Amino acid sequence: QVQLVESGGGSVQAGGSLRLSCLASGFPVTSRCMGWFRQAPGKERDGTAFFASAGKTTYANSVKGRFTVSRDSTKNTLYLQMDSLKPEDTAIYYCAAGSADRCSVYNTWDWGQGTQVTVSS
């Protein structure tokens, strides 16, 4: 049974940093495309950062150069390091495990419960 548990959200001022963690169980994080999505109030859930099974990472243009996705296979955990945060980064952040090993193909997703990130100006 796939389980994803996010942690690390909170409130921070613009320019600050946060690191989100996603502890996975029921499968190895190295076996699937793993992703971070976010959903701001009144907006759709959007893909933010992805980590493919083979190690390739991809980012939304809005976070390139500021966010870094990584994984620790020994802890079966996915991370999202968020630096230079902006008020527009305010959202609920969700960890997701894809159905494929590559992120460049169609995936269906298993979701975590989400963690709130609030950035004040």
- Discrete helix count: 0
Instruction: Tell me the helix content.
Output: under 10%
The termini sit apart by 40 Å
Low-confidence stretches: none
Derived from helix and strand composition plus strand pairing, the structural class reads: mainly beta
H-E string: EEEEEEEEEEE
Principal-axis shape:
globular
The proportion of strand residues reads over 45%
Radius of gyration from the alpha-carbon trace, in angstroms = 13 Å
- The overall strand count is 11
Mean pLDDT: 97
Largest sheet: 7 strands, mixed
What features would you highlight for this structure?
121 residues; mainly beta; four-stranded antiparallel sheet; 11 strands
Walk me through this protein's architecture.
This protein is an all-beta fold and 121 residues long. It contains no helices and eleven strands. The strands form two sheets. Strands 2, 4, 5, 6, 9, 10 and 11 form a seven-stranded mixed β-sheet that branches. The protein has strands at 3-7, 10-13, 18-25, 34-39, 46-51, 57-59, 67-72, 77-82, 91-98, 109-111, 115-120. Helix content is 0%, strand content 50%.
